[in-house]
UniProtKB/TrEMBL annotation:
Residues 15-252 form the SET domain. It comes from the Eukaryota. The keyword Ribosomal protein does not apply. Keywords: Metal-binding, Zinc, Zinc-finger. GO terms for molecular function: zinc ion binding. This is MYND-type domain-containing protein. The keyword Transferase does not apply. It comes from Sorghum bicolor (Sorghum).
Amino acid sequence: MASWLEQLQRELAGRGLAVASIPGKGRGLIATRTFFPGDVILNQEPYASTPNKILVGSSCDHCFTSGNLRKCSMCQVTWYCSTNCQKEEWKLHQLECRAMAALTEDRKKMLTPTIRLMVRLVLKRKLQNEKVIPSSSIDNYNLVDALESHIWKVDENHLVLYAQMANLVSLILPLIELDLKEIAHTFSKFACNAHTICDPELRPLGTGLYPVISIINHSCVPNAVLIFDGRTAYVRALQPIGKNEEVSISYIETAAVTKKRHNDLKQYFFTCSCPRCVKGSEEDALLEGFRCKNQTCDGFLLPDSGKKAYTCQKCSVSRDEEEIQKMRSEILQLSDKASSFLSSGNKAEAGSVYKTIEQLEQNLYHAFSTTLLHTCETLLKIYMELQDWRTALAYCRLTVPVYERVYPPFHPMIGLQFYTCGKLEWLLECTEDALKSLTRATDILKVTHGTKSQFMKELFGKLEEARAEVSFRISSRHGHDE
């Protein structure tokens, strides 16, 4: 009988893929045929998954939708949107339900998503071993077992935490004989292999373990993207991927300087050496750098080792370090004030303070600075919540050029931002602008999200509506001219 790895390789071969040893990286996934932008490279259901908010019923435990949820009457923990979803989960949930129903209310409060993910993983493994539920070449515990844990690199505090979590799992599942050391190792695997399940607009819904997708390595300039439809994970090509080329996705937010990206990657226990990280310095100077004092210059500043100043790399005009630090200090104080207003729910005052911060940052930072970008994103969110659509649109438009600078051309963040612009423009009856934005959104998101999801169907509907309205207005104008 073929080994699990041979079975996996056969399955992947049918999809134009292969697991290979990548120099300096370990395992990776390579293409054995050409993939074009928008092609589904790989899709997988999770070996185990759980919503983020367990006790409050944020989404269905099976399909991760958020409507018409009903709580399991026995365990009072699990939520389903329909009888069908409950039936699909029943063989697994039957065991989980009994275990959780026996917990005290205090113990139920200790059911974090990570603990629940482990409980479900243990139960699924048991049911697959007993042939109660089927396994397959891309859905079996051997794939989980083969994941890297990096346990020897984990600090003592985390080792203690994993041991405590393993003990808690044993208390939840007292009738199952568990290897606590193995459970602790698996928690370490979660830390560097589990994926955040997001909705189509990239808002976190839950956590899932996708052991085949976990084979795909990271790049800060990925050639593929991971998108979810419900809890099904899809890896789609962002650009042409040739035969024998490695498939890569991004594990982290890539709109950041090299130092920040490398810091975010520490949990995965490697240092990225992709072309973007190797090149580094000039892009970093733009993303975190200060702007030239000369208002007509679009250059960026770098520290001048010969004096306490920053010098423009384009026109050589310098800015005094003391002046820069004074402005940064003022921005920091205002940021604390704005955060306080946000925490208290005073969005109008928070928006006013953030606008002042934005003005200061425009004088201090380069136009492509991620600091300025995050301020604009915050203002967009505030004015969306205040339903000040015109101001929200202004900030949405400000973010787009920066997104286009920091992300690859076909990136969901760019597409989603154009979609937001389009919806706001439509609301404000800027119909022709809405059509342009929705067209751009569609061109990008049909590559990253495909064309079949409900989310994309709604986008296509809005695009057709905008086209029809623009066509009607043009024909009406021609009629008046005649």
